[in-house]
Amino acid sequence: MFHALVLDKSPEFSASLREVDDSFLPDGDVTVAVAYSTLNYKDGLAITNKSPIVRSWPMVAGIDGAGTVVESTSARWKPGDEVVLNGFGVGETHKGCLAGKARLRGEWLVRRPAAFTARQAMAIGTAGYTAMLCVLALERHGLRAGDGDVLVTGATGGVGSIAVALLSALGHRVVAATGKSSEAGYLRQLGAEDVVDRAEFAAPGKPLQKERWAGVVDAVGSHTLANACAQTRYGGAVAACGLAQGMDLPATVAPFILRGISLLGIDSVMAPMPRREEAWSRLARDLDPARLDAATTEIALADAVEHARRLMAGQVRGRIVVRTGA
Q1: pTM of the model
Q2: Which terminus of the chain, N or C, has fewer Cβ atoms within 10 Å?
Q3: 3-class DSSP state for residue 41?
Q4: How far, in Å, CA of 152 to CA of 269, rounded?
C-alpha cells in the first residue's frame, strides 16, 4: 500500500490523499518508487480544477517524479536505477508521480544526473528543465554572454527563478520582471542584476518599442510576451514557454519584419529524448545547487493540495518539492 494524490470527478471534482495498492497503477514497463515529486503550474491547474488538464479519471496528479526503479521489463532500465520523469502526459492522461509509486514507460525516463539528489532533481522539475530548454534555444539562436541584457518574466515562479540562476551563472546580465517588489532580494540572490515591475509589460503597448533585450525568457504570455517582443533588440530572440497571464498574443508583425527578431516556442511535455538528456546534462553542469536550495520549499504529500491552491493564488515563490514518503 502507498499514498497517492488522487483527482476524481464522480460527479463532483475532488482532490484527496488516498491509500492505494499496485492494482491502482496504470500499464507500463517500469515501476518506480517515487522519492520526490513537485508542484508545477500545470499541477496547480489540475489539482485546483482551474483548467481541463486531466483527460482521464481517476487521475494521480504529478507531472514530475524522481525515484528508484523497483521493477522493469524495459531493456533500458533495471531495478536500482535512479530516474527522473518530466511530462509525456503523466498527470494528464497517465497516472502521475504525486504518490509513493508510479508505473511508467521506459522511453519516458531520463537517468538522474549524479550531480543531483532526487530532491534536487525535483527542485528543478519540469519548471527548471523548461528553463534550460529556453536557454538552449536562445543559445542555438546565437545568444552569448555579453550580448546585452536578458529579460526573464514571471521571475519569482519556478521557470523564472531557475532561468535567472542559469542565465546569471552563464555570464548574462539578467533583468527580472516580477509583481512582487518584496522579492527583489531573493531575485538578486539568484543572480538578477536588476529587478523591474511586471506592470511595465502587463498592459497593451506600442507595436514597436525601445530596443532593450538581447534575449528573453517568457513564462507569462499575453501582453507581457507582446511587449517583450516589441522591446527585443535587432536580431534577438524570445523563448516563450508559459501562459500565466493568458494564452493570447496581442502583437503585430512589426518586431519580426522590422527588427528580425525570433519567437522560439518551447515545449517541455513531448520534447524528444536527446533534447531532454542535453537539458539535464547542462543543468548538472551549469546550475549551482546552492542557488537551487535558495529557491526551494519542501512539503509533505499531505500538504500538496493546500500548496497547489497557494500556487494558483500567486502566493508561492520558486519551487515546491513534495516528499512522497517512498
Answers
A1: 0.93
A2: N
A3: helix
A4: 21
